[in-house]
Amino acid sequence: MTHALYQLIELSFRGESALPVIATAPFTVRLRHADGDEVTVAGFWDGGRDYRARFLPEKPGSWSWAVENARTPLDVLGGSVDVGEARGRGPVRVAHTFHFAHADGTPFRPVGGTAYNWLHQDEPLFGDTISSFVEARFNKLRFMVFPQAGGSVEHAPELMPFEKTDGRWDVTRPVPAFFQRLDGAVRALGEAGIEADVLILNAYDRGVFGLNELSEEEDAIYARYLVARLAAFPNVWWSLCNEYDQLLRPEERWDRLGQLIADIDPSQHPRSIHNWMHIFDNNRPWVTHASIQNGFATEKPGRARIYRDAYYKPIVLDEIKYEGNAAARWGQLSGEELVDRFWNVTIDGCYASHGESYETESGSLQIVEGGRLRGSSPARIGFLRGILDDLVVPGLDPIDKWDDPELGVGWGRRQYLIYFGRTAPASWRVRIPITHYEGEAPVEDDRFVVDIIDTWNMTITRAGEFEIDEVHRDFAFAGADPVALPEGEAIAVRVTRADLV
Amino acid sequence: MTHALYQLIELSFRGESALPVIATAPFTVRLRHADGDEVTVAGFWDGGRDYRARFLPEKPGSWSWAVENARTPLDVLGGSVDVGEARGRGPVRVAHTFHFAHADGTPFRPVGGTAYNWLHQDEPLFGDTISSFVEARFNKLRFMVFPQAGGSVEHAPELMPFEKTDGRWDVTRPVPAFFQRLDGAVRALGEAGIEADVLILNAYDRGVFGLNELSEEEDAIYARYLVARLAAFPNVWWSLCNEYDQLLRPEERWDRLGQLIADIDPSQHPRSIHNWMHIFDNNRPWVTHASIQNGFATEKPGRARIYRDAYYKPIVLDEIKYEGNAAARWGQLSGEELVDRFWNVTIDGCYASHGESYETESGSLQIVEGGRLRGSSPARIGFLRGILDDLVVPGLDPIDKWDDPELGVGWGRRQYLIYFGRTAPASWRVRIPITHYEGEAPVEDDRFVVDIIDTWNMTITRAGEFEIDEVHRDFAFAGADPVALPEGEAIAVRVTRADLV
């Protein structure tokens, strides 16, 4: 059998039952490619006498493998797998400092959503969440492994991650059915083209389940088990915690957990930690991208970009307040406001996540349990995703980061995106800045195609093709006649060199 | 003789001449207070057979001292000094995370200016710089140890910091007269109440003097010598470099230099490194405060505060573009614009430095050579300094950092400062937010004094004393009648609990 490149390969074993799950894996598997590349993955216990090891191949060809360091006798100790053509694009990693790309080089622009307690919902809610994300074109889902307690949670799960020993959660006795469900959730997202932004810990247990009481050693055992199970799924992202600073743990403890995951994940998935009021030091080496809660930073353009030059990593504004009618001020944005925030973030060279806080039939919120989306923003955010997917540049960087945000984002002489915000002018003269962050300066005779984007009405109208006929000081101009902009409060312009369209 | 607390004590010695200056100090002096406190300072060579050791006492009483680790025979090997009452307030250090205070606890609010090449000017320019700073009420001066070459520099100094050996600067042979002049400059600033923000290296040599060619080992020898000479001046701040990233050195090298200074400075003066286009990782442990060049961050309120939660250190915007008529866009701000930027920074809980770029009689700029100030902003910035000095709180922190910047800065129930920017309303209803970052919520019957500040016309008008008569949701209100605000585009309001005025 030939496996697909960028798809999980699972090796199954029979061993001893009841081997406790500890920091040391029950066995490891060393895989060796015909050309000498080696990868080592940790095996894991999956219930009864079942053991597995999972591998995410990033190179086609033949991989031989051998069991090493076994703490349990296994029925198979070696073999080989053949990897053929790619299915999917491979795991996402940082590209061009501020952006992401799949392993095959395809840019990935996160346009994600949020359903914290999704994993713990029954059908049809569980499946509806995925289908509503597909419909909205969201490509990342932030959800928690451990169940949420308290605020707006109407559903306590039956499946819990660990057995109890003497009344205390025992991380050495994981519940296979719980983690198999998690496997299935990640797999289902992957099949729907959605990255699984896995929140390993959360701050919302509030003592109800007691899963917030794990010690640092217990966290590490759990994290090793989680990485052994999930790291071979191509669509996994690791987020250490949602609102980490609600948990009273020293920052050093989070730092060690993040470094542990960096050390043991063979696939080097994206790693982040999400704040409440105190942003983590995203300059720590294990942090691959900043996952920041700060709606304020997205309310006006020019704020979120400040983070880029504090961290020199991709900036993902995960929680920028929600569209909805909640009583709390984090959940009262109109659809227009949330869409405007997404565009502000885009024009600052950053990314954002959606969340919705209209009360649902069950009395909960979509950000908590998932399900169908009610708001007016998802369609427009999906429209934005389409624009990002169609970019002919690796990422959008501010053209003139610390001087003129009106020059928009893009790459010099290739493509530019300008957003006029909620007060668009009636017309725009085609002028392209000489300055640039990436790329090069436009020159006379360059031809550019100009598209007018109505971000709310979701239209893209070709204004025409223009030739640069004047380069004067800071700008290259095309023609004297400005392009008319439509009525509407949220208009953008996309300028693409004609040969790249 | 009794020395003053917080003033430099100098011990003088005679030893061998021509002992090369290397990484190991020629001797150290261990000082021991009667109650057991110990401080060790490095001695240094000061020309011929003269050696010195300097000590900045932070505790009154008797300190005995003894020479240790001498590489040269010295004429005196021990003694004692008596320290009496304080003169001055002692060195500045970080206080309350985002702010500064002198060693005696007095808050220090940097309102500084810039004259990069000041040290290398003759009189009257040299003295005029200090007197113009005193007149403007600037309390910090950013200047470079090594001379500037190139842009707007009309004066090449005769004194250089080192002798040459085989045509190359020899850091083991410092020029005492050069460093004595530096001592005098720092002392003169101190006597004028101005902190000396010493730029240890700079990016403007451009090969003219060749001082940009020192190796990492040579940097370290120079830095050790500089610290031995200057660390006992109470008003010293260390800045590793202006626009460090113009020099093509790996970030790790800067990091090691910063850590070296942190390790060897007995007085632990403020430490920073100033960027051109790439902000240094201000989360590095040796960085005490962020010294950031980014005028854009100060152009609108709500931007600079983003840095606070990236670094959790004081944020000093050192270079926010200059008031002047220079051709380059960094030097074309009007006085009104620069004053507005200072207020934006203040209202974001940060600090800024002034700079002026009107062409001077010599064809240079004030930011380069110093001298008298021509612009309209210094008087207004000095006025702002007066307001900061009069604060009854340790520092100004955004009241509602990620939600409502219009709530201003301050400490809950003590003092608030609100800046209406360049579009002030005609009146303001006295309302005090319940939320707070520091301090506590106001309650009914609290009395507050309201002052109207015209930031441009430099007036403070008492609007009256108001009693809180209604607490409703997010605000405490005093009376139904709003306070009238004067005409003018840059109005602020200061609200102080009556018993603290």
TrEMBL record, chains A, B:
Ranges where the DUF5605 domain occurs: 402-496
Apiosidase-like catalytic domain segment(s): 99-330
A Pfam family that the UniProt record links to this protein: Apiosidase
Record-linked InterPro entries: Apiosidase-like_cat_dom, DUF5060, DUF5605, GH, Ig-like_fold
Residues in DUF5060 domain copies: 6-68
GO BP: any one term: carbohydrate metabolic process
Source taxon at top rank: Bacteria
PANTHER family linked to this entry: DUF4038 DOMAIN-CONTAINING PROTEIN (PTHR37836:SF2), LMO1036 PROTEIN (PTHR37836)
Protein name, as recorded: DUF4038 domain-containing protein
Organism expressing this protein natively: Microbacterium sorbitolivorans
